[in-house]
Amino acid sequence: MAAGVSLYIQQVDTFNGKLYAKTPGGWVLLQDERKEYIEAPNCVICLESTDAIFGGEGAKTEMKCCKNWVHDACLEAMVQAGHSGKMIGFNHVKCPSCRKSLVDQPANQLGFGGNLYRLLNEERQLYLQIKRMKESKNKGLSKEEQGNWAFFKCMECTHPFCGGKVSCAEEFDLDPSSMVCDGCDWAKEAEDHRCFEHGKDYAIFKCDFCCSPACWACGSQHYCNYCHDHGGYQHPTPCLGPDKCPLGIPHPPPITTNERNRYVLSFVIGCHKCSDPNAKVEYKSYNADPFATTHKYTNMVVKFKYSKFNFQWNKAIDLQGGHLFDDEYEYETDSEDALEDKKIDEKNGVKDLSDIDDGEDAPNAKLGDEILLHAPLLPPPMVAQSS
Description:
Helix content is 18%, strand content 13%. By secondary structure, the protein is of the alpha+beta class.
């Protein structure tokens, strides 16, 4: 049959191992032991037919880039297999036929649905995140020095990080399963900066998505202005470590894109009232409370484990100002010293554990007019970011 000619098939039957089809013009031979007599699309991955007449099963999709067909299950398995080699790459998300990238355009333009759409969208977010990191690394470098950066997955925060040039990475026998980014290595030095004298209302939080002070408490996370207004929350920015972090203090890593729909126990970086005695409460946050000992939220994201609470806190001991702590100081809660500390707490007006707002009275959903701006006292110590 000539290429491009359509065949209207009314019925399919097998006789003596041969496949026949009934058409308005009569019965025709479609396939015997040696060959197929009509052109039927095959999956370019498994090379099996995608046409139900020839035994093709499952969902199929025509690739928009080259008009070839694939089984959705075959393409999904290819994407799930991930990149090969030690460095992060994107060969596994290229068209298996024409090799055009599947992540340089929004996933909803590819025509896939269900789990395959989700997988491709996750790969695209990673692709865009690394693309921005490459642009940042190339800034200020000559053309000869730009590019060829090697990116790896941090085994602790799961964010990508740059490990240097590809040529250098290839020279060493690296073990990706033990690689940790500079931000996570530095995060081990993070300290508890909560002030129990002034509490949550005056707390300054870190943005859950980057290394900036937060100025929004929205939904279940804290955001800086860029991440809230310019889509930064869609691609969390991992910390570059002590020499390059715009926040300037050790802190836990940002949440991942997969954690965006969960409640987050945000990291406190200071206290407005301790910095400015005239500071006023600017907003009420119903997010998870780092000052509480218990939480009603299940499956909550916890990047920093708070260890001290108001019944252990003493302003005279935990440094003047009440928002920095000495990790080496230990309290024996069943000792006479602990009881004496509690008396001093009561004298200083420090609330008892039962007075802590644990969020039980918080509404299940926030109204639109309850999303209020929380402006830091000082501008964020970072380079201005544009949308």
